[in-house]
Amino acid sequence: MAGVPFDQMTGKIWCNGAFVDWSEAQLHVLSHGLHYASCVFEGERAYEGEIFKLREHTERLIESARILDFALPYSADEIDTVCRELLVMNNLTDAYVRPVAWRGSEMMGVSAQTNRINVAVAVWEWPSYFNPEQRLKGIRLDIAEWRRPDPQTAPAKAKAAGLYMICTLSKHAAERKGYADALMFDWRGRVAEATGANIFFVKDGKLHTPDPDAFLDGITRQTVVGLAKARGFEVIERAIQPDEMADFEQAFLTGTAAEVTPISEIGPFRFEVGEITKTLMDDYSAAVRPQAPAAKIAAAR
Questions:
Q1: Using one digit for the tens of pLDDT, what is the confidence trace for 250-292?
Q2: Which of 124, 140, 170 is the last residue of a domain?
Q3: In 60-180, at which residue ranges do the beta strands (DSSP E only) sit?
Q4: 157 is catalytic
Q5: pTM over cut 0.85
Q6: What total number of domains does the chain contain?
């Protein structure tokens, strides 16, 4: 489906309790979720017909909605069932899964106490987030001008649509310069994350990753922490200052879309695609497969 706009793809989408044709899954232009960003979503991947950590993603969707002061009208079991049924219905085994929930059109203003809560799920084929050849060599990151906000000014623990506005701005700016993505600092000037993925660094055989106090503690991030510890690697979660990047040997991103992606440079800083990064790439690839070795699956939980 490369090159086909998303609103012109074919298949089935589940929307507010019904499976509908792709072209029929629409919302009105006067939807609160569009105008006021009262919208939450998830990004999930299916491998060989099974969605990796589906329940964790569904629970985070429900929690994100709670943080934005609305409740989903469907249970976690119902949403999980829909996600699985959509894969079969659309004849997909390796796919991206996107549940989304938003306030509707009953009230159009900052207040939307009585608005209907809409929920939809779509699935589509999406093999790789970054260019595959570029990914193997390590991607190049710019340093973003925008920063992740103070949690007292935005609901940083929700996977909320509005929080990604500055991510789009940062990624566009990076791509115009020839980079694949951008590293964002937090409001204090500390290393935070990329525009849609968490970040890890390696030094002297130990992993260092920013404390997720101002951004999502990603499900893939948590999985990789477990895999690293199962390998005997020490994982240190802490505040990381930008100038520390000069001393790190390796760096990589983690995320549902990015999976485990090596980094070759961030602005003026250079990194190698080393053995620890390669090992965790392989371990993650094994862990997400339905027939992954039991020990790796246990470590990923």
A1: 999 999 999 999 999 999 999 999 999 999 999 999 999 987 5
A2: 124
A3: 95-103, 117-124, 139-148
A4: no
A5: yes
A6: 2
